[in-house]
Amino acid sequence: MAAITVTAAIAVAVPSAMAQRDPAYEAARSAGQIGEQPDGYLGFVSSPTAAVRDIVNDINIKRKAAYTSNAPQGSTVEQFAFATGCNLIAKTKPGEKYKAPDGRWLTRDNGPPVRDSRCP
């Protein structure tokens, strides 16, 4: 799992960096409309506008491509995406939304986020 985790952080660096340059993405994230999920993809906390839906769908397509092309031998795309999701949730900032293992959307505070027990 450690090798998957290290590679997972690298795999989504490009899609995440590209998204962070988009003011609409940043606004939706700051407003709590979207958040990170344990499966490695962005999710909708509330009903999105068409523009927010398009941004998230685009990012998730790019993440899927990165997971597919970078999954280490011996792991599935889903395992790799999950490991990346663990890392992305850990990197959320206070005030940002993320999905807890029980499916609830939580707002990150100053403490560590609630993550799946299988996360490294």
Q: Your description of this structure?
A:
There is one protein chain. This protein has 120 residues and is of the alpha+beta class. The protein has helices at 2-11, 13-20, 23-30, 50-70, 77-90; strands spanning 34-36, 42-44, 97-99, 105-107. It has one domain. The protein is built from five helices and four strands. A hairpin with a 5-residue loop joins strand 1 and strand 2. The chain starts with a helix and ends in a 13-residue tail after the last strand. The model has no long low-confidence stretch (mean pLDDT 87).
Question: Characteristics of this structure?
Answer:
four-stranded mixed beta sheet, 120 residues, 4 strands, 5 helices, alpha+beta, globular
Can you summarize the main beta sheet?
Answer: 4 strands, mixed
The tally of beta strands, per DSSP, is 4
Number of helices: 5
Helical proportion?
Answer: 40-55%
Number of domains: 1
| Structural class estimated from helices and strands | alpha+beta
Supply Rg.
13 Å
Cα shape: globular
Distance between the termini: 7 Å
Spans of at least 5 consecutive residues with low confidence: none
The average pLDDT value, as a whole number, equals 87
Q: Kindly estimate the percentage of residues that lie in beta strands according to DSSP.
A: 5-15%
In N-to-C order, the SSE pattern is: HHHEEHHEE
Tell me the strand order in the biggest sheet.
2-1-3-4
In short:
This protein is an alpha+beta fold.
Secondary-structure blueprint:
Elements: H1 2-11, H2 13-20, H3 23-30, E1 34-36, E2 42-44, H4 50-70, H5 77-90, E3 97-99, E4 105-107
Parallel strand pairs: 1-3
Antiparallel strand pairs: 1-2, 3-4
Helix pairs in contact: 1-5, 4-5
